[in-house]
Amino acid sequence: MSPQAKIAILGAGPGGLTLANILSTNRIPFTIFEAFSTPRSSGGTLDLHPAHGQAALKAGGLWSSFVKVARPESDVMKIVKLDGEVLWDGNTTNKHVVKEGEEFDHRPEVDREKLLEILLENVKGSVKWGKKAIEVVENAGGKWDLRFEDESSEAGYDLVVGADGAWSKVRKVLTDIAPYYSGISSIELLTLNVDVKNPWMSQYAGMGSCFSFGEGRAIQIQRLGDGSLRTYASVRQPETWIKDCGIDWTSDNAREELVKGYFADCGEDLKRMILESKDSLTPRSLYMLPVGIKWENKKGVTLVGDAAHLMTPFAGVGVNAAMADALELGKSIVSFVEGKSESLEKVVEEYEKELFERGEKFAQKTMQGLTKHFSARGGEHMAGRLREAYGNA
Predict the structure, then answer these.
(1) Per DSSP, what are the bridge partners of residue 301?
(2) Using the 8-state DSSP alphabet, how is residue 71 labeled?
């Protein structure tokens, strides 16, 4: 068996925590440094693919915990044209019956918050909270030191894994490539306790997701396991649109102004979903890394997830990509520790070769989704794909 390597994971999101669980299951020590002072709790719902997110949870010993919080019943899609015409409804006319025992053969949903909870279950003692990295530097001995915003530091790491998201400090060690604006801005709207507060919204959205796509615009609605609905009203606009469009996003009239200026010709039901989502409003500019991003391998440093291949959410693969990265990197580190590989440097180099190929495939799928969703026939395209997969169900 090889000597233990000193491993740092920057970031306690899905990618970093998945890697941590795989290492923990194999009794490989590590430390996680997380910029936030407490676990993150925001976010929508995620679908985990059998070959990616689900496989990673199994490798991390978390499958039974996942089954308890997953929502296979929410793997349902409703597609609506922007004018209100329903093209596909997996809740009713196009319902696909899943056989008993096959619920996890597809893509069960899980709230991001619940996923993070189970990922933290067994590794929370290895997380140092409130440690926002400002620099990762190579020391004179060829190992890596970490410097944090609170003026503290940690030294002598054999491997630093950047799971630190879109604006990764670790990525800066490897490449000058930075995220760029995707062309899409999105307004996230929240409705809490929707079944009680607004039964009509609950019924319209259905059991899972309700999507509406068209030229330069999209409305996406997701049901969460906590009883809330998240509605995303997205537009193709310049990078400064959120600041320059003239809408005061903190005002009570923001929803009305958004609908009047950008969704006035949409179906009445879709407009209601925006107007009646009253509990919070968060504007976001969406960024991405170039499709096919690569870098020269550097001993002792690598990336997973958004740090490696930041994407927009328009293929729904981001968390699966991050967890697949963690799975493959975890297996590589285990191989080295068990003496099956000649060096940690070599296994990381091999991991990155697969990372680049895998990341490019996910990013291409996402770029295709962005292009088609925001096209004039975006809804018809998505409904057509569902018919190809399920017939008329």
Answers:
(1) 160, 298
(2) B
What is the distance between the alpha carbons of residues 34 and 264, in angstroms, rounded to a whole number?
42
* Cβ burial 304-335 (10 Å sphere, 16+ → b, else e): bbbbbbbbbbbbbbbbbbbbbbbbbbbebbbb
Angle (CA) 166-171-172 rounded to 5° is 110
Per-residue pLDDT of the chain (393 residues; tens, 9 = 90+): 456 899 999 999 999 999 999 999 999 999 999 999 999 867 789 999 999 999 999 999 999 999 999 999 888 999 999 999 999 999 999 988 777 777 788 889 999 999 999 999 999 999 999 999 999 999 999 999 999 999 999 999 999 999 999 999 999 999 999 999 999 999 999 999 999 999 999 999 999 999 999 999 999 999 999 999 999 999 999 999 999 999 999 999 999 999 999 999 999 999 999 999 999 999 999 999 999 999 999 999 999 999 999 999 999 999 999 999 999 999 999 999 999 988 999 999 999 999 999 999 999 999 999 999 999 999 999 999 999 988 875
DSSP string, 355-387: HHHHHHHHHHHHHHHHHHHTSTTHHHHHHHHHH
Centre a 10 Å sphere on the Cβ of residue 181 and count the other Cβ atoms it contains: 14
Helix pair 14-25, 318-337: axis angle to 10 deg:
30
Longest dimension (CA), the chain: 66
The neighbour count for residue 5, using CB atoms within 10 Å, is 16
Q: At what angle do helices 344-373 and 318-337 cross, to 10 degrees?
A: 170
* DSSP structural state of residue 245: S
Half-sphere exposure of 11 (CA within 13 A, CB side): 27
The two three-digit tokens of residue 204, written as one number = 């319209």
Separation of alpha carbons 305 and 311, rounded Å: 9
